[in-house]
Design brief:
Blueprint (H helix, E strand, L loop, with lengths): L5 E5 L4 H17 L4 E6 L15 E4 L6 H15 L3 E4 L4 H8 L5 E5 L10 E3 L7 H9 L22 H13 L8 E5 L11 H13 L3 E4 L6 H11 L4 E3 L6 H9 L3 E5 L2 H9 L3 E4 L16 E4 L23 H4 L3 H10 L1
Parallel strand pairs: 1-2, 1-4, 2-3, 4-5, 5-6, 7-8, 7-10, 8-9, 10-11, 11-12
């Protein structure tokens, strides 16, 4: 293998998956400092990759709206780039097709992909490992790679711009909030209903935080705005700051980095907190830490209901509780969650 390979990382899943794939980029760059590293992602996740000095190009593939033509076009773009190595942590049909038709001599991915026969190097998907460690196992499959422990990075590195820092600072100044020691950021939402907190559970946690002398800051994406507005209206307290829908992922990362603790469900925001090194209270509903998406590099406490035989009911999340009781979230105690945050 050349000492300056052209490398493509393919991760077209969710934001959290992209964040957890970053140690692959960092580790490969440590091994091959002269390499040219590109990253293929979807539009909604590209922000978190910006300003990364290890990357040459961020290639954006709108897989949900571009159809067959979009797949053809992205394959054409990738073939023209003439990569030496393609690493594909994502286990989808489209990603496998892009990897296969990339033209790269080395095509590495997981054996759990039903189209893994299209790869030149198949890596066992270790279901009990952390996702970062699973992704890094792809790096170890690069032919003739010489990898030592000092070159392996586990914590994702993010690179907000000066403009991002100014936006977050200005937003905090507008709230007249000064004492960052008492700031707790909170991300209660998820794409999946069974992974997110109920509004009443979120309200209970916020009220407990305020009663304990903390200021709570809500963060989330544009799809979470209505949820957070309803929570803000119900709490009706100046100690609740609602930043939901106002920040990009990199800006959310900056805000979380200023907090004393981050409280999160099993979502991308938890991985932003882990990247920031902020202590985390991680709350699990229908999923479990054993799936490999717990905080790996931050001090953390896990909150979950261990008294239910129905957990886990899915490896991703569901749009509703299949048993209609949603006890994995409903039975959790807001006081216990806040007490855990104070212990960190």
């Amino acid at each position: 293998m050349t000492s300056s390979p052209k490398v493509l990382i393919i991760q077209t899943a969710f934001l959290g998956d992209v964040i957890l794939a970053l140690p692959v980029v960092q580790t490969l760059k440590n091994v091959y400092p002269e390499s040219e590293m590109d990253f293929l992602c979807i539009p909604s996740t590209q922000n978190v990759l910006q300003n990364n000095p290890a990357m040459r190009n961020i290639i954006v593939y709108d897989k949900h709206h571009s159809g067959i033509k979009g797949l053809h076009d992205i394959i054409h773009t990738i073939r023209n780039n003439k990569y030496d190595i393609v690493l594909c942590p994502h286990r989808s049909f489209r990603s496998a097709m892009i990897t296969f038709f990339s033209g790269a001599k080395v095509k590495i991915g997981f054996d759990r992909n039903s189209f893994s026969f299209l790869l030149t190097h198949k890596v066992h998907y270790e279901s009990n490992a952390h996702e970062v460690e699973r992704d890094l196992s792809l790096v170890k499959a690069v032919p003739d790679i010489s990898l030592n422990k000092e070159q392996i990075e586990l914590r994702p590195k993010l690179f907000p711009s000066k403009g991002d820092d100014k936006i977050v600072s200005d937003l905090i100044n507008l709230t007249n909030f000064i004492n960052l020691i008492n700031l707790v950021t909170l991300s209660p939402c998820s794409k999946w209903f069974t992974k997110q907190l109920t509004k009443q559970k979120t309200i209970g946690i916020i009220n407990e935080l305020i009663a304990s002398g903390y200021t709570a800051a809500l963060i989330g994406g544009s799809e979470d705005v209505n949820y957070c507005r309803e929570v803000e209206k119900e709490v009706n307290n100046e100690k609740l700051l609602n930043f939901c829908g106002k920040l990009t992922p990199l800006q959310s990362y900056l805000l979380i980095s200023k907090a004393s603790v981050h409280i999160s469900v099993d979502s991308a925001a938890a991985h932003l907190a882990s990247a920031a090194g902020t202590p985390i209270v991680q709350i699990y509903g229908s999923t479990v830490p054993a799936f490999g998406f717990y905080p790996l590099t931050s001090k953390h406490i896990v909150i979950e209901n261990l008294n239910l035989d129905c957990r886990p009911c899915t490896d991703h999340g569901r749009t509703e509780c299949p048993l209609k009781h949603f006890r994995c979230i409903e039975d959790l105690n807001a006081k216990d969650i806040v007490r855990s945050a104070m212990d960190l």
